[in-house]
Amino acid sequence: MNTKNITVTDKPLLNTNLDTNFLKLVAIISMFIDHVGAAFFPEYPIFRWLGRLAFPIFCYCMTVGMLYTSNIRRYLGRLGLFAVISQPFWILAFNPQDILGNLTNWNIFFTLFISLLAVWGFKEKKWWLFILAFLVISLWNFDYSSTGILLMLVFYLCRKKPSLGAVLYVLLYLPAFFTASPGDPLSLTIGNYGIGFEAGALLALPLIFLHTNTSLRIPKWFFYAFYPAHLALIALVHFLLGF
Protein backbone atom coordinates (compact mmCIF):
# COMPACT_ATOMS: atom_id res chain seq x y z
CA MET A 1 0.00 0.00 0.00
CA ASN A 2 1.54 3.34 -0.97
CA THR A 3 2.06 6.39 1.22
CA LYS A 4 -1.07 8.28 0.25
CA ASN A 5 -4.31 7.59 2.02
CA ILE A 6 -6.89 5.62 0.07
CA THR A 7 -9.92 7.48 -1.19
CA VAL A 8 -13.42 6.05 -1.28
CA THR A 9 -13.38 6.11 -5.10
CA ASP A 10 -10.44 3.71 -5.34
CA LYS A 11 -12.25 0.36 -4.90
CA PRO A 12 -14.29 -1.78 -2.59
CA LEU A 13 -14.11 -0.49 0.99
CA LEU A 14 -16.99 1.88 1.64
CA ASN A 15 -18.18 3.88 4.65
CA THR A 16 -15.22 3.08 6.87
CA ASN A 17 -12.15 5.16 7.65
CA LEU A 18 -9.65 5.06 4.79
CA ASP A 19 -7.33 7.58 6.45
CA THR A 20 -4.90 4.72 6.96
CA ASN A 21 -1.74 6.73 7.66
CA PHE A 22 -3.49 8.51 10.53
CA LEU A 23 -4.82 5.20 11.84
CA LYS A 24 -1.41 3.55 11.71
CA LEU A 25 0.14 6.53 13.51
CA VAL A 26 -2.45 6.18 16.29
CA ALA A 27 -1.73 2.44 16.41
CA ILE A 28 2.04 2.75 16.78
CA ILE A 29 1.66 5.41 19.49
CA SER A 30 -0.77 3.12 21.31
CA MET A 31 1.59 0.17 20.87
CA PHE A 32 4.56 2.15 22.18
CA ILE A 33 2.60 3.18 25.29
CA ASP A 34 1.57 -0.44 25.82
CA HIS A 35 5.09 -1.80 25.48
CA VAL A 36 6.64 0.85 27.74
CA GLY A 37 4.03 -0.03 30.35
CA ALA A 38 4.60 -3.77 29.99
CA ALA A 39 8.39 -3.40 30.19
CA PHE A 40 8.84 -0.73 32.85
CA PHE A 41 5.55 0.12 34.58
CA PRO A 42 3.55 -3.12 34.96
CA GLU A 43 1.90 -1.76 38.10
CA TYR A 44 0.09 0.95 36.08
CA PRO A 45 -2.69 -0.70 34.00
CA ILE A 46 -3.53 2.56 32.17
CA PHE A 47 -0.57 1.88 29.85
CA ARG A 48 -2.00 -1.50 28.88
CA TRP A 49 -5.55 -0.19 28.45
CA LEU A 50 -4.39 2.55 26.08
CA GLY A 51 -2.33 -0.06 24.27
CA ARG A 52 -5.44 -2.06 23.35
CA LEU A 53 -6.20 0.32 20.46
CA ALA A 54 -3.18 -0.86 18.48
CA PHE A 55 -4.03 -4.43 17.49
CA PRO A 56 -7.53 -3.92 16.03
CA ILE A 57 -6.33 -0.84 14.13
CA PHE A 58 -3.40 -2.79 12.68
CA CYS A 59 -5.79 -5.60 11.70
CA TYR A 60 -8.07 -3.10 9.99
CA CYS A 61 -5.21 -1.44 8.10
CA MET A 62 -3.89 -4.84 6.99
CA THR A 63 -7.35 -5.70 5.64
CA VAL A 64 -7.49 -2.41 3.73
CA GLY A 65 -4.01 -3.13 2.41
CA MET A 66 -5.05 -6.59 1.22
CA LEU A 67 -7.97 -5.12 -0.72
CA TYR A 68 -6.00 -2.34 -2.38
CA THR A 69 -2.50 -3.71 -2.89
CA SER A 70 -1.43 -4.50 -6.44
CA ASN A 71 0.80 -7.35 -5.22
CA ILE A 72 -0.44 -9.34 -2.22
CA ARG A 73 2.65 -11.57 -2.20
CA ARG A 74 4.95 -8.58 -1.88
CA TYR A 75 2.68 -7.14 0.81
CA LEU A 76 2.79 -10.39 2.79
CA GLY A 77 6.53 -10.63 2.14
CA ARG A 78 7.16 -7.27 3.82
CA LEU A 79 5.16 -8.35 6.86
CA GLY A 80 7.02 -11.64 7.05
CA LEU A 81 10.42 -9.99 6.62
CA PHE A 82 9.88 -7.52 9.45
CA ALA A 83 8.41 -10.26 11.63
CA VAL A 84 11.71 -12.15 11.31
CA ILE A 85 13.81 -9.00 11.81
CA SER A 86 11.83 -8.04 14.91
CA GLN A 87 11.88 -11.41 16.68
CA PRO A 88 15.26 -11.12 18.48
CA PHE A 89 14.42 -7.57 19.60
CA TRP A 90 11.01 -8.79 20.82
CA ILE A 91 12.67 -11.42 23.01
CA LEU A 92 15.34 -9.03 24.33
CA ALA A 93 12.75 -6.35 25.10
CA PHE A 94 10.38 -8.52 27.13
CA ASN A 95 12.12 -11.80 28.02
CA PRO A 96 15.87 -11.12 28.24
CA GLN A 97 16.29 -13.49 31.21
CA ASP A 98 15.02 -16.52 29.26
CA ILE A 99 15.99 -16.11 25.62
CA LEU A 100 15.96 -19.80 24.72
CA GLY A 101 12.64 -20.39 26.46
CA ASN A 102 10.99 -17.63 24.44
CA LEU A 103 12.29 -18.37 20.96
CA THR A 104 8.80 -19.47 19.88
CA ASN A 105 6.87 -16.66 21.59
CA TRP A 106 6.12 -14.91 18.32
CA ASN A 107 5.93 -11.12 17.96
CA ILE A 108 2.82 -9.35 16.69
CA PHE A 109 4.04 -9.11 13.09
CA PHE A 110 3.88 -12.91 12.90
CA THR A 111 0.29 -12.74 14.15
CA LEU A 112 -0.59 -10.14 11.52
CA PHE A 113 1.18 -12.15 8.81
CA ILE A 114 -0.63 -15.43 9.58
CA SER A 115 -3.97 -13.63 10.07
CA LEU A 116 -3.69 -11.80 6.76
CA LEU A 117 -2.64 -15.00 5.00
CA ALA A 118 -5.76 -16.71 6.38
CA VAL A 119 -8.13 -13.95 5.30
CA TRP A 120 -6.52 -13.72 1.86
CA GLY A 121 -7.04 -17.49 1.57
CA PHE A 122 -10.68 -16.94 2.54
CA LYS A 123 -11.06 -14.16 -0.03
CA GLU A 124 -9.53 -16.27 -2.80
CA LYS A 125 -11.47 -19.40 -1.71
CA LYS A 126 -8.22 -21.21 -0.91
CA TRP A 127 -9.90 -23.02 1.96
CA TRP A 128 -6.91 -25.23 2.74
CA LEU A 129 -4.79 -22.12 3.34
CA PHE A 130 -7.45 -20.51 5.52
CA ILE A 131 -7.87 -23.66 7.64
CA LEU A 132 -4.12 -24.27 7.92
CA ALA A 133 -3.41 -20.67 8.99
CA PHE A 134 -6.29 -20.78 11.49
CA LEU A 135 -4.96 -23.99 13.03
CA VAL A 136 -1.38 -22.71 13.20
CA ILE A 137 -2.32 -19.45 14.91
CA SER A 138 -4.76 -21.15 17.30
CA LEU A 139 -2.51 -23.99 18.40
CA TRP A 140 0.88 -22.25 18.51
CA ASN A 141 2.08 -19.46 20.78
CA PHE A 142 0.97 -16.34 18.87
CA ASP A 143 -0.04 -13.07 20.52
CA TYR A 144 -3.84 -12.67 20.40
CA SER A 145 -4.23 -16.19 18.98
CA SER A 146 -7.06 -16.30 16.40
CA THR A 147 -8.45 -12.86 17.31
CA GLY A 148 -6.54 -11.31 14.41
CA ILE A 149 -8.20 -13.62 11.89
CA LEU A 150 -11.64 -12.97 13.36
CA LEU A 151 -11.12 -9.20 13.31
CA MET A 152 -9.86 -9.20 9.73
CA LEU A 153 -12.79 -11.39 8.66
CA VAL A 154 -15.20 -8.91 10.23
CA PHE A 155 -13.52 -5.99 8.46
CA TYR A 156 -13.45 -7.87 5.14
CA LEU A 157 -16.96 -9.35 5.18
CA CYS A 158 -18.54 -6.13 6.48
CA ARG A 159 -16.58 -3.75 4.25
CA LYS A 160 -19.84 -2.50 2.71
CA LYS A 161 -21.90 -2.89 5.90
CA PRO A 162 -20.04 -0.87 8.54
CA SER A 163 -22.95 -0.89 11.00
CA LEU A 164 -22.93 -4.69 11.06
CA GLY A 165 -19.14 -4.62 11.28
CA ALA A 166 -19.31 -2.36 14.33
CA VAL A 167 -21.80 -4.68 16.05
CA LEU A 168 -19.66 -7.77 15.38
CA TYR A 169 -16.57 -5.89 16.56
CA VAL A 170 -18.27 -5.14 19.89
CA LEU A 171 -19.40 -8.76 20.21
CA LEU A 172 -15.81 -9.96 19.75
CA TYR A 173 -14.73 -7.95 22.78
CA LEU A 174 -17.84 -8.51 24.88
CA PRO A 175 -16.25 -11.41 26.84
CA ALA A 176 -13.81 -8.90 28.36
CA PHE A 177 -16.73 -7.63 30.45
CA PHE A 178 -17.43 -11.06 31.96
CA THR A 179 -14.18 -13.03 32.14
CA ALA A 180 -11.97 -10.81 34.31
CA SER A 181 -11.52 -11.47 38.01
CA PRO A 182 -12.03 -8.59 40.45
CA GLY A 183 -8.64 -7.54 41.76
CA ASP A 184 -6.77 -8.57 38.62
CA PRO A 185 -4.03 -5.90 38.33
CA LEU A 186 -4.88 -5.22 34.67
CA SER A 187 -8.65 -5.17 35.15
CA LEU A 188 -10.92 -2.27 35.95
CA THR A 189 -12.54 -3.31 39.23
CA ILE A 190 -15.89 -1.82 40.21
CA GLY A 191 -16.98 -3.29 43.52
CA ASN A 192 -17.01 -7.05 43.00
CA TYR A 193 -17.04 -6.73 39.22
CA GLY A 194 -13.98 -6.79 36.97
CA ILE A 195 -13.67 -5.59 33.37
CA GLY A 196 -10.77 -7.10 31.44
CA PHE A 197 -8.27 -4.72 29.89
CA GLU A 198 -9.03 -6.11 26.41
CA ALA A 199 -12.19 -3.99 26.61
CA GLY A 200 -9.89 -1.07 25.88
CA ALA A 201 -9.99 -2.19 22.23
CA LEU A 202 -13.46 -0.67 22.03
CA LEU A 203 -11.77 2.74 22.07
CA ALA A 204 -10.60 1.99 18.52
CA LEU A 205 -14.15 1.52 17.26
CA PRO A 206 -14.92 5.16 16.30
CA LEU A 207 -11.50 5.58 14.71
CA ILE A 208 -12.12 2.62 12.40
CA PHE A 209 -15.74 3.23 11.48
CA LEU A 210 -15.81 7.05 11.30
CA HIS A 211 -13.98 9.22 8.77
CA THR A 212 -11.06 11.45 9.83
CA ASN A 213 -9.60 12.66 6.49
CA THR A 214 -6.37 14.15 7.84
CA SER A 215 -4.48 13.70 4.53
CA LEU A 216 -1.45 12.69 6.59
CA ARG A 217 1.48 11.45 4.50
CA ILE A 218 4.09 9.16 6.04
CA PRO A 219 6.50 6.86 4.15
CA LYS A 220 5.19 3.29 4.35
CA TRP A 221 8.56 1.92 5.45
CA PHE A 222 8.39 4.05 8.60
CA PHE A 223 5.55 1.94 9.98
CA TYR A 224 7.43 -1.29 9.29
CA ALA A 225 10.76 -0.04 10.65
CA PHE A 226 9.26 1.49 13.77
CA TYR A 227 8.35 -1.91 15.18
CA PRO A 228 11.84 -3.46 15.48
CA ALA A 229 13.33 -0.02 16.23
CA HIS A 230 11.16 0.63 19.28
CA LEU A 231 11.72 -2.95 20.52
CA ALA A 232 15.48 -2.43 20.19
CA LEU A 233 15.16 0.81 22.18
CA ILE A 234 13.26 -0.95 24.98
CA ALA A 235 15.85 -3.74 25.01
CA LEU A 236 18.67 -1.18 25.21
CA VAL A 237 17.03 0.64 28.13
CA HIS A 238 16.54 -2.73 29.85
CA PHE A 239 20.27 -3.40 29.45
CA LEU A 240 21.37 0.06 30.61
CA LEU A 241 19.10 0.03 33.67
CA GLY A 242 19.93 -3.56 34.54
CA PHE A 243 16.32 -4.78 34.49
Automatic annotation (TrEMBL):
Transmembrane segments: 22-41, 53-69, 75-94, 106-122, 128-157, 164-181, 193-210, 222-241
Name of the protein described by the UniProt record: Fimbrial assembly protein
Highest taxon, organism lineage: Bacteria
InterPro entries found in the cross-reference section: TraX (IPR008875)
Keywords: Membrane, Transmembrane, Transmembrane helix
Source lineage: Bacteria, Bacillati, Bacillota, Clostridia, Lachnospirales
Pfam families found in the cross-reference section: TraX
